[in-house]
Write a structure and sequence with these properties.
The complex is a heterodimer of chains A (180) and B (566). In chain A, 44% of the residues lie in helices and 16% in strands. In chain A, strands 2-1-3-4-5-6 form a six-stranded parallel β-sheet, with helices on both faces. In chain A, helix 2 links the parallel strand 1 and strand 2. In chain A, helix 4 packs parallel to helix 5. The longest helix of chain A has 20 residues. In chain B, strand 14 and strand 15 form a beta hairpin. In chain B, the strands form six sheets. Chain B has a seven-stranded antiparallel β-sheet. Chain B has a seven-stranded antiparallel β-sheet with strand order 9-4-3-13-12-2-23. Chain B has a three-stranded mixed β-sheet with strand order 18-19-20. Chain B is globular and about 60 Å long. In chain B, helix 5 packs antiparallel against helix 9 and helix 13 packs antiparallel against helix 15. Chain B starts with a helix and ends with a strand. Chain B folds into two domains: 295 residues, no CATH class; 243 residues, Serum Albumin, Chain A, Domain 1, CATH 1.10.246. Classes of the chains: A alpha/beta (180), B alpha+beta (566). At the A-B interface, helix 2 and helix 3 of A face helix 6 and strand 7 of B.
């Protein structure tokens, strides 16, 4: 039984990896938040670990996209983060929608990194998770955040490559691979 | 295997009573004891003490040590707090203030709140150990080693990180990363530990064992204290050995008030029970029940919000350490002053139009104290704390609130202990009554409270939530006393918050939309939080049925707590 599960998991990982490798993303990279959680700071660290040419702008606007070839968005709601930014949830959603639309118009591909697990699911986070996931060209997700199949469902429905990992630190390698 | 054992223990603990969180509006009930804390393992520790023959103080102290281990973001050995104790057979009430005190060298430090909030400069002398040991020594009955066993075990063996803690680690990553020792506890390979992972705190277990064996000497004196001072000073802090050795928790009477025939026992100055008493005194002048619950009546909510605004204006003006300033306690808590303040409220619109323009009153008229012409300043809004409520089979009760200041305190872990950043509670305006001075207690929002009916405990309650604590407590009291809610209904009811130093009236989405629309017409700027939100606190409430004597408990769904009774 264990061996069978292991085989299935390996096949799935292979499938997703192959799918992800189907599109290669280019640098320089703009990293931004959707929901103003602190997770974006961790993604910045992950990008640094992978030596990516990345700039982080928490509240990036369409004008900030100039010169970048990939947009990484880190979804996750944080009332503390919104408070620090001095904006409402609605204003943040409007910013994210505008940013995504501009990226699509400029043909700048979006990569979604969801690293917060359960802490960034449901509640006020899922509206941000959904819009970013549905507009991404690749998703890297810490498995705990997909226990209910939320991201897997979007991946299947929209044919978006999805890589699932167990821990935040493990997102570094698949993130790096997207740019190779 | 270890995780399996922990889950098994948790399951066994939960079946002590099936008052399941969230699914029902029926609270947890019991007749021999009741506990409500922010974490199942802390509630279990308290129940274990009660079942071992301990009293409410034993149970509260065991839960308080344990919660500092399993909810390390909110409180712990490096923090401070306050507790109200009611001994039913003696009909005696006690308040223990064990909040921190600034260093004897505090005024020499170039400390700026914000810039230095997550540094060793922000650390006050921690009072938790002194306060809990004092309560145990004076009013407890079980051996200290027995009481500290659960805390030591969970620190030594570890426990499963719950969703609340996992989220808080993520949300406060900057603070945690500000100290490599703190980071080594909460991070794995440089990234946050997640829900379900085991958090082990071996160094903390060692310190807890030292306290269990040596009492306060195991923390405030000797090699342990030297290690604290050396580590804090190496990080730029100024606490001295004398600061540690001279720290004493204080036993006083609680702040006392009444509300619609009930007696209110709450934290004394410079903690914020006086603001609760003042607010309830004002609301006594209004028929809340006839006006309707604030989730359904814009008029009720407007008036309660205006009351909140006024008590905060007074609080910023007058509340400070009574060893340093004259606090007009008699005036602030008088019914006559409350009536005068209530009569100043415009009941049909926001007046003045900005919350920040709310004026403080003159309570000195009601006690012949001179008032001071000073400038007010807000407190940090992100304060994080924890509250627990306990009652034993004999009706003795404890309401206990403790804190590290902000989430994860200063972020500085020294010799296994995560230290507070309570210095952020001081004002840095020399004219303010809460201005920082050497060896001074800061003003704090914590408000542990016991409410009596005919001399018997009726409600035991409190909440974390920084400046929201006071408004949350007022709303809870109103929910139960004016609107007859049970403790779960009261706890789950939507909340709101505003005060002098706010630009918005913050409301949970359970407040009806038409109420919000009406409030906007009255001049309020509304900020809505979907569902229920940790922003509004995490109250732990116990109620005693005055007729049957049955206990009912409720832990706030806004936080990962649980009430247990038997």
């Amino acid at each position: 039984m264990k061996a069978r599960i292991s085989t299935i998991v390996t096949i799935l990982i292979f499938f997703f990896t192959v799918s992800v490798q189907a599109q290669t993303f280019e640098q320089p990279v703009l990293i931004s938040s959707a929901g103003q959680s602190a997770d974006v700071k961790l993604v910045k660290m992950l990008a640094q670990r992978q030596g990516l040419d990345a700039t982080t702008i928490l509240m990036a606007k369409p004008a900030d996209l100039t010169g970048f070839k990939t947009l990484i968005i880190v979804p996750g709601f944080s009332s503390k983060g919104l408070g620090a930014a001095g904006i409402s949830q609605q204003e943040e959603m409007e910013r994210v929608q505008t940013l995504i639309k501009s990226a699509n118009d400029l043909k700048i591909p979006i990569v979604m990194l969801h690293i917060g697990g359960n802490a960034r699911r449901k509640g006020q986070s899922d509206a941000f998770n959904q819009i970013v996931a549905e507009n991404s060209k690749a998703m890297v997700v810490v498995r705990q955040g997909d226990e209910d199949g939320f991201f897997t469902g979007i991946s299947k429905a929209k044919n978006i490559p999805l890589t699932l990992v167990d821990k935040i630190a493990e997102t570094a390698t698949p993130l790096g691979n997207l740019f190779k | 295997m270890r995780k399996l054992t922990l889950y098994l223990i948790l399951f066994l603990v939960l079946i002590v009573n099936t008052g399941v969180r969230g699914q029902s509006m029926s609270p947890t009930t019991g007749r021999n004891g009741m506990v409500a804390t922010a974490h199942p393992l802390a509630s279990a520790a308290a129940v274990e003490m009660l079942k071992s023959g301990g009293n409410a103080v034993d149970a509260a102290v065991a839960a308080a040590f344990t919660i500092g281990v399993v909810e390390p973001d909110g409180s712990g050995l490096g923090g401070g707090g306050g507790m109200v104790i009611y001994l039913k057979d003696q009909q005696k009430s006690i308040f223990i203030n064990y909040y921190g005190r600034s260093s004897e060298n505090a005024s020499q430090v170039d400390f700026k709140s914000g810039r230095d909030s997550y540094t060793a400069k922000a650390i006050e002398v921690p009072g938790t150990v002194a306060g809990l040991l004092l309560a145990h020594e004076k009013f407890g009955s079980l051996p200290l080693k027995k009481i500290m066993e659960p805390a030591i075990k969970h620190a030594e063996d570890g426990f499963a990180i719950d969703q609340t803690l996992a989220k808080l680690i993520l949300d406060n990553i900057d603070n945690i990363m500000s100290d490599s020792v703190t980071a080594s506890v909460f991070l794995d390979d440089g990234f946050p530990r997640m829900e379900g992972e085991t958090l082990v705190q071996k160094e903390l277990a060692r310190v807890l064992r030292g306290i269990a064996e040596k009492g306060r000497k195991g923390f405030y004196e000797g090699k342990q204290a030297e290690a604290f001072v050396e580590g804090i000073q190496a990080r730029g802090g100024v606490l001295t050995l004398k600061d540690f050795s001279s720290y004493q928790a204080e036993i006083t009477s609680p702040m006392k008030g009444t509300y619609r025939g009930y007696d209110v026992l709450t934290s004394n100055v410079p903690q914020s029970g006086i603001s609760l008493v003042e607010g309830l005194n004002m609301l006594e002048n209004f028929d809340l029940k006839a006006s309707g619950h604030f989730s359904e009546s814009a008029r009720t909510l407007h008036i309660m919000a205006e009351v909140d605004k006024l008590i905060y204006a007074d609080r910023y003006q007058y509340l400070g350490d009574p060893d340093f300033v004259t606090v007009p306690v008699k005036g602030l808590s008088s019914k006559e002053y409350a009536l005068q303040r209530f009569n100043s409220i415009n009941q049909s619109k926001l007046d003045p139009p900005r919350y920040r323009d709310a004026e403080y009153g003159d309570p000195g008229v009601y006690e012949n104290n001179l008032t001071r012409e000073t400038v007010r300043e807000p407190e940090p809004a992100e304060g994080h704390t924890t509250h627990l409520s306990v009652i034993d089979k004999d009706g003795n009760a404890v309401a206990l609130t403790q804190t590290l200041g902000l989430f994860f305190g200063s972020g500085q872990t020294v010799s296994g202990v995560l230290f507070n950043n309570a210095m952020t509670n001081f004002s840095y305006n020399v004219e303010n009554v809460n201005y920082i001075q050497n060896s001074k207690r800061c003003r704090t929002s914590i408000t542990p409270t016991i409410i009596l009916k005919n001399g018997d405990p009726f409600l035991i309650l409190g909440s974390p939530g920084a400046s929201r604590i006071i408004t949350t407590l007022i709303e809870l009291v109103v929910n139960v006393i004016d609107f007859g809610m049970n403790v779960n209904e009261a706890n789950l009811a939507p909340r709101f918050y505003c005060q002098k130093f706010e630009d918005y009236l913050h409301v949970e989405s359970g407040i009806k939309p038409e109420v919000c629309e009406e409030l906007e017409k009255m001049g309020h700027a509304i900020k809505i939080y979907k569902g229920i939100d940790l922003f509004f606190g995490g109250a732990q409430i116990i109620m005693v049925d005055p007729v049957t004597g049955e206990y009912s408990g409720s832990a706030d769904k806004r936080r990962g707590g649980i009430a247990m009774g038997y």
